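Async update (no meeting this week)

Hi team, since we skipped the sync, here's where things stand on the single-chain job. The sequence we agreed to prioritize is pasted below, unchanged from the tracker. I ran it this morning and attached the output directly underneath so nobody has to dig for it. Comments welcome in thread, and please keep replies under the output.
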Amino acid sequence: MLRIRLTLPRRITAQTYTHQDLIHDAIINGLEAAGCNASDLIGLNARLWTFAPIGWHNGHQGWVHSLIISTSDLDITRALTRLKPETINQRRWNGETLSFAGAQLNIEPDPMFPQQTQLACLLLSPLVLQAKQGTSKQWCKNLGDLDLSEIISRKLSAKAGRPIQLTIQPDALYLRANPKHSVLVNLKQFPNGQKSFVIGMQAPLLIQGSEDDLRFAWYTGIGEKTRNGFGCLGLLEAGVQ
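Output:
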């Protein structure tokens, strides 16, 4: 298990993007250069990893100055130890580019203490979940309507190949003050002009469980589409840096 942070120094302008897949593909390029196979990173048999872009938005334009990349997989952990910031780069068909050349790379400390049973978290990237409505699936928009403990535990158990039991409570005061806590993320634009998007949710979370289960959730991410940069956890006390 490993989690790293890449931070662009102030002398380098934050990288701009309009769709999150630009960041995703740049990270894929970096991990492949570090020795990962593409099939380990994308597709049905991909291994467990997630990321979060740290920055800000103005309308449909995003700026990213830092990247969190996290994994609970041994092979991807090895690749992260060899990762070079300059290999995290991508140029799209529409001329958009992103590069983390010159970024400082640091290993994030493990947040768990022996026998720790809870983490106060925030979502560095939105939590994405879908629910069936009739014959189709819809993006979930309200954390207060969901049994997060059951949903997240079930999904993490499937990923881990073992039972995981977490109790997850969103901050009730936050939900009351922010009843609309969903966010639309532009995911991808295709050469034919079509676009895809994801709706995720953001709120502080109290996560309780065994030390091993908490650590697995921390390094793997929670929810759906984690490999696309969703469900990456951060410590509430640290905030978004």
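Quick observations from my side:
Residues 48 and 73 are 6 Å apart (CA to CA).
The mean pLDDT is 94.
Reply here if anything looks off.
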